[in-house]
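Example A, followed by Example B.
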Amino acid sequence: MLEIRPSYVLAMPGLISCYIALGRDEEARDMAAEILKLNPKFLVQKHVNFFAVKDHTENERVRAALLKAGLPE
């Protein structure tokens, strides 16, 4: 999706989670900066609550990854 719409903010947190899982922290931080540039009001908890899944472990993994990348709680 980001290849088609590079400013599609909703796709970026998933990619950040993947980058963090792969140890590609710098790329995750760069994407987090891009999110904040496009949406300065982005909040991790709001994103996680909106896209929550039944597996609370997965929700926490995504939350931790987004925070590690530098996005605000």
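Example B, a separate protein, is given below in the same form.
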Amino acid sequence: KNIPVIVLSNNDGCVIARSNEAKKLGIGMGVPAFKLNNIIENNNVKVFSTNFALYGDMSSRVMSLLSQFSPSIEIYSVDEAFIDFSGMNQRHIVAENLITKIKKSTGIPISIGVARTKTLAKIANHIAKKYSTNGFFTLDSKNYEISILKKFPISKVWGIGYKRAKMLNYYNIYSAYDFMQLN
């Protein structure tokens, strides 16, 4: 916690995961480890080798805990899932309970974004991860969605990425809201 950490690929070749603290140091994904020696030494960056068996085990534990809160869960990747919160009252309490239980059971901090679509949920999760103090954020009204999407960079939208964003910027599409206005 609060320490820059990176995980290197097989044979410790390239960066495949980084903590927020490592990102702030300018450590990019896919960068060969040997190019980071100065940054690592000067900033006390903790470096770890991959351990896919451990990642799979921890992922299974987290997904199992998530499934206790909702029968409708879609596992998207080793560290991401979608849960159907529809019909649940007091979603923030359910989310707080999930965050607390997973942290207590696994030591892993999680963030939860709630919205009416998966893309909006990923945006809400991004906000929860970066800006909320409790790890939870919800987009609960159309007006609120629009105000957030007007500020949300197109490059951060799920499936867009840096290269497509650059092309969209050429056409004056800079935010998720600008993108929504396309026909």
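On Example B: The mean pLDDT is 92.
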